Amino acid sequence: MKELTLLGGARLSGEIGVHGSKNAALPILFSCLLFSEPVELANLPDITDVSAALSLLSSLGVKIVRKGRGRVLLDPSSACSDGCDLSLSGSLRGSLYLLGATCRRFPGLTVPRPGGCNFGARPIDLHLSVFRAMGLTVSESEEGVSVRGRPKGARFHFPTVSVGATVNAILSAVLADGRTVLTGAAREPHVLDLIAFLRAAGARISLPAPGAVVIDGVPRLYGVRHRVCPDMIEAGTYLLFTMATGGEITLRAIPPGELACLLPLLAGMGARIGTGVDSLCLARTGKLRPVSLTTAPYPGFPTDLQPQMTALACLADGESVIADPIFPTRFGYVSELRKMGAKIAVADGRAVVSGGSRLTGRNVTAPDLRAGAALTLAALAAEGESRILRFDRIERGYAALTRNLAALGASVTLSDGGA
Ligand code: UD1
């Protein structure tokens, strides 16, 4: 259990490189089980979720060779489910992708119900409906979920856009017999990165219309090299940190188009933004203005930036309204922000934030990854010292966070708070 001690008040200023996307890395890593040839991945972020995924794959017999920073060779040719240890998967929501990736190779493999961030109900009914539509038999038990059978192409419409269920549908369809047509599917950059990776390996996947994905099953995939796409949530989080502290930041290795959902909002709140081909710089000018937004699937405002934006709104000059219909209960962190002086009312999946609060450093606990990033933002802007307990939850998804904050001028000390 780690904790971060942070002295608020420093204006963040400097330049950092954006890492590879967590939400792309996890499905791509698990999809390696569809291959019988080695696959080389670059730009994997050094985060605990990626280490946990690599350990899971290793326990399934995938040979893993680390070839330098962010670069890993995975050889799944002798993968085997005998004696595998899936206990780690309980802490990793992405482990659900094992179902789609192994339904042919290890039929009946029982995958524990997924962990990951705990911010309310996170159903998996759509994943299971897709599997059933593809002719697979789904079994649920206390130990977890398993699927067996030979996947067959099918038509499936997602009544709700789901990143996870779209990924599982693609993974089961890539080697299936026949054509799968998905409509209402997710089109997040991390889903498109998975598709680009699989296409480069010989998968036949097309995107004929918004929300539509057509997959023609192929007999096999071929070994390939792939560079994981940049993490737009990490990039967005650093922009919000900078807005909170009134500083100036340059981000490298991020095409600004990826942040089209965020940059106009930040401009409206008082940011001056300059963009390059794969870089951008942001400086806050004057007082922060309030914001109103509603989360939506890509290209809408991501639910993964909702907690950080709510924390930023506490510092704005006026009332902000932030709604999260994707995960209406994703406001559990608000009680921690209130300890620091925030004035936020939450009802029906919507936060009404009375801005202009003076935040004060406190001991707070990160309830989950993005909520932890929101508390870090509040601590950066607060007067005095904060201790963020369970900082390990934040390290699940942000590579080199403490180092980056220190390089940008924040006063931070990471310590081991014990078990
Ligand atoms: C979601 C985000 C994703 C983010 C991730 C981690 C969206 C659309 N998805 O992905 O960008 O990286 O959280 O925070 O923004 N749902 C069902 N049944 C299911 C699956 C999902 O009803 O079987 C509902 C969920 O309750 C939610 C919506 O669909 O309201 C989207 O969930 P989903 O995209 O599946 O969640 P994640 O894959 O975790």
Q: CATH homologous superfamily of the largest domain, by name?
A: Enolpyruvate transferase domain
Query: What does the main sheet amount to?
Result: 4 strands, mixed
Count of β-strands:
22
Averaging pLDDT over every residue, what do you get? 95
Number of domains: 2
> Mind telling me which CATH architecture of the largest domain this is?
Alpha-beta prism
What does this structure look like?
The protein has helices at residues 22-31, 48-59, 97-102, 125-133, 163-173, 189-200, 232-245, 263-269, 306-313, 334-339, 369-381, 392-395, 401-407, and strands spanning 2-7, 13-17, 39-42, 63-66, 72-75, 137-140, 145-148, 155-157, 179-183, 204-206, 213-216, 225-227, 248-252, 271-275, 279-284, 292-294, 319-323, 343-347, 350-354, 363-365, 385-389, 411-416. With 419 residues, it is of the alpha+beta class. It has 2 domains: 2-19 and 230-416, UDP-n-acetylglucosamine1-carboxyvinyl-transferase, Chain; 22-227, UDP-n-acetylglucosamine1-carboxyvinyl-transferase, Chain. The strands form 6 sheets. The protein has a 4-stranded mixed sheet with strand order 20-21-1-22. The protein has a 4-stranded mixed sheet with strand order 2-13-15-14. The mean pLDDT is 95. The protein binds uridine-diphosphate-N-acetylglucosamine (UD1). Uridine-diphosphate-N-acetylglucosamine binds at residues 23, 93, 117, 122-127, 160-165, 186, 188, 297, 302-304, 326-327.
